[in-house]
């Protein structure tokens, strides 16, 4: 009788050990080996990966804008684009900046600690590589009028930080729309100018 009880206990212990090892192996395999972000989100912190998911786009102070005069100039250029229906292209903004600025530092604002603007964006599309197409809406004040602008752009999932934060400079092929017209468009072959422009016009959102 004692022998049977011992064998039964050993059998139960073996089964429990097998189930535990199998569960850990299966979970680890799903999380670390799968290329499907849905599986990776089972055990890890959830990251947006589907249409309808939300992220927060954060705009930081740009090191390329050092004076209030530059802020005013960029803001006026943006307002003029809205009022006249013209379109600002990324490199167009370079004429409003000091000529000594390096073309390699357009993304340096990722290192700045001071956030000047946040907006919620929704995932509208996911391409075959897993990049997410984001759309965010925000009201600005132009004179006495409130205008809604739409900000769009693609982001790689690896650029999404903890808390589902996306730096504005990580948006690819970014655009700003107002009243059905594009008022700003990044150069496809250039680093993002969106963060620089948004940091300059951040005061338009504070009303």
UniProtKB/TrEMBL annotation:
The keyword Membrane applies. GO terms for cellular component: bacterial-type flagellum basal body, distal rod, L ring; cell outer membrane. Assembles around the rod to form the L-ring and probably protects the motor/basal body from shearing forces during rotation. Pfam families: FlgH. It comes from the Bacteria. GO terms for biological process: bacterial-type flagellum-dependent cell motility. It is found in: Bacterial flagellum basal body; Cell outer membrane. PANTHER family: FLAGELLAR L-RING PROTEIN. Belongs to the FlgH family. InterPro entries: Flag_Lring. Keywords: Bacterial flagellum, Cell outer membrane, Cell projection, Cilium, Flagellum, Membrane, Signal. GO terms for molecular function: cytoskeletal motor activity. This is Flagellar basal body L-ring protein FlgH. Its main location: other.
């Amino acid at each position: 009788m004692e022998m049977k009880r011992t064998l039964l206990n050993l059998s139960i212990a073996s089964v429990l050990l097998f189930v535990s090892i199998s569960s850990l192996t299966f979970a680890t395999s799903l999380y670390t080996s799968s290329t499907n972000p849905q599986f990776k989100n089972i055990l890890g912190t959830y990251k947006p990966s589907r249409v309808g998911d939300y992220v927060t786009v954060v705009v930081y102070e740009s090191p390329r804008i050092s004076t209030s005069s530059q802020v005013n100039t960029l803001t006026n250029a943006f307002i003029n684009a809205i009022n006249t229906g013209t379109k600002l292209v990324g490199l167009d903004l370079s004429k409003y900046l000091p000529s000594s600025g390096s073309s390699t530092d357009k993304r340096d604002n990722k290192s700045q600690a001071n956030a000047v603007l946040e907006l919620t964006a929704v995932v509208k599309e996911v391409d075959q590589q897993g990049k997410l197409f984001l759309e965010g809406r925000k009201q600005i004040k132009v004179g006495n009028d409130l205008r809604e602008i739409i900000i769009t752009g693609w982001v790689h999932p690896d650029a999404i930080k903890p808390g589902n934060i996306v730096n504005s400079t990580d948006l690819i092929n970014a655009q700003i729309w107002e009243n059905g017209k594009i008022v700003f468009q990044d150069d496809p072959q250039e680093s993002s100018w969106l963060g620089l422009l948004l940091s300059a016009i951040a005061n338009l959102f504070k009303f």
